[in-house]
Amino acid sequence: EEPPSTPPVVYSRYADNVLRSVIKQLRERTEILKEKAIDPYATSPEISPPVTPVLRKEDYVRQKEKERIAKEEEDRKKAEEAAKKAEEKKKKDEEKRLEAEKKAEEERLAEEARRKAKVLPDISCSCFDVLFHPVEQKLDTVLGRTIDPFTDRRYIAWLTVVAVAYNYNVWLCPARLAFPYHSETANPFWIFFDILSDVVNIIDIVVWQPRLQFVKAGDIITDMFSIVPFDLLSLQFGFSTIYRFNRFIRIESFFEFSDRLESIMAKAYIWRYLRCYYFAVRSLINIGGLPEPVTLFEITFQMTNFFIGVFVFSSLIGQ
């Protein structure tokens, strides 16, 4: 009797199991490939793609005909929807047109009613347009058709002249009304400077304002009322500056001049310092409109301020 075979020596159980499983898979794959080599119709282990069914010619033609009919039906529905939308849009446009015509007719009737209600007829200014057209073209070559009010230094320089004319009216008109500054000798000078300030306002309204690059609420706004010559009433009622109070309407020109000047100045605080100086002088001579002192320091400071202010003011008046 032969002695029993010696069992193999296994150093790693994990490696042995892995090797055995790999050998088993290789043997199974070898068997499958042998079968495939013998039988060409045998299936492979990979998943086969789905087979497209082969149709007969009659079935294929019938299927294509159904597809064509379905496509034509779809195109027909799309065309009907497009025609329906176009019809709705045409109807809406027609309604808008009729509404616009109705509104225009109402405006025309209202305008005719206003014209019938007018006491004075309208005055055509076409002759003035023809007369001043060459002058306007000449000014366009010099000033341009539009002016940027924020960066154009020519406009800001002109605002200086307008501000001087406004200050002349706003300061001297009340002074001339309150004090006896009118005499046969001084009146010609007053008339000259009044006319000069009015010319400045007229030039500003006619030449400069229409060239600004903005309008208000779609309309060009001008201060036409501020240059109405109420001074002519002096010929009937006597020379007086009360007829020039409509010039005060142009107060916006002064504030516009202040804002534009600050925007282009390299040291704008110099211009704003003038306002601080006004507040300081008002505090020094106790004109009013100041906050009331509360603490002891504020009371002491205000008392000292009042004494110094009264002393300076009395010195100036005394001299």
UniProtKB/TrEMBL annotation:
SUPFAM superfamilies, alphabetized: Voltage-gated potassium channels
Chain residue ranges for the region called Disordered: 39-105
Lineage, highest ranks first: Eukaryota, Metazoa, Chordata, Craniata, Vertebrata
Stretches with biased composition (Basic and acidic residues): 55-105
Protein name: Ion transport domain-containing protein
